[in-house]
Amino acid sequence: MAPGLWTLPLEPSRPGRATVGGVTTPRSRFFLASCIALVVTAMSFAIRGDIMGELETSFSLSNEQLGWIAGTAFWGFTVAMVIGGPLCDVLGMGRLLAFAFLGHLAGIGLTIFATGFATLYAGTLLIGLANGFVEAACNPLIATIYPDEKTKKLNQFHVWFPGGIVIGGLIAWLLTQGELGFQAKMATMLLPTLVYGGLFLGKRFPQTERAASGVSMGEMFAECLRPLFLLLLVCMAFTASTELGPNQWIPKMLEATGLSGILVLVWITGLMAVGRQFAGPVVHRLSPTGMLTFSAVFSALGLFLLSRASGDLMTYAGATVFAVGVCYFWPTMLGVVSERLPRTGALGLSAMGGMGMLATSFTLPLMGRWYDDNIAAAGGDQAAGGAATLATVAWIPVGLIVVFGLLYLNDRRRGGYRAESIA
Predict the structure, then answer these.
(1) CATH of the domain at 147
(2) Whole-prediction pTM value?
(3) Which of 148, 310, 326, 349 is the most exposed place for a label (fewest CB within 10 A)?
């Protein structure tokens, strides 16, 4: 069996390098490969958003069917996280990443050669599973090799979700200008898939921080039943739906207004990438729970502005506010769990990511149904239908303002936000 598929203890080593089983690997190589794997995940999100209109026309699909196809990527992600989280230490991070690599290759191929709803659904499911295995392996990997900078490095890792959407969105837009179809757009994901597979190939992976610290599997499961974790798990469903639901539908909804929806998505995700790259000073100033409160306020405001925007300037203004809002949601939620509940280990991180994607898998077809209903109510006006749908979704982060605000005030009452030691 290839040595890269083993998970062994992290040995004492020089700063910036991880030594496992006598083999030394720069932490930067693990981090780079993880980022490229996340780029593939994000490109699939952007390209899927761009090609939804073409799939609708080519295969005579309804908006609700499109929602189910897009949604399967998210519940597939959840299945992979549910498998990968508890079994990360048993299977090893290398095996999970091998599953991700094979899933990406197979899913891309099935989509390129799709013949209808069933093959599109299956291809998207495989890509979703692959995306989930990337998150299930890379989040604990980064938390393990950067134990003193978890929130910062997880934010920098998750730069490449919006960064990958920018890459995928621009590629999709350029290929559209060249009158190339969805097959060519999907094929562009093959190169980064091969690159991350090559970077991980033959590498020995460390144990997760939880396993290396001697926390048992039973203790890890017990930690995941703590009230704070369960509250954060519920909140993750709503933060993910706020971010990923609108972002998946925005390209199609805005096309009806005469704007290039994919370029608006590129703008949103470009701003998100910049924000996550410089998350460190924001975390220091606001604290993680303060960041989450800030994010909920701006997410709600941005969606309300987008729902009422008329013209390019107002649309981009609303998109900017929305981007600032959703920018920190996902990585900061993971950072809070990793810092405040470190004994939840890989299971905690996987459960959070899985909950976010599972919720989004239901949000997408629900938004599709609202979109169809709102178009009908507006007498066939697709632009008005899209605006009404975004206005409805905007109420999701309003509830989060209350929850995160109370968590922030509780931290202030107790003397400030504090990370817990796993020891």
Answers:
(1) 1.20.1250.20
(2) 0.72
(3) 148
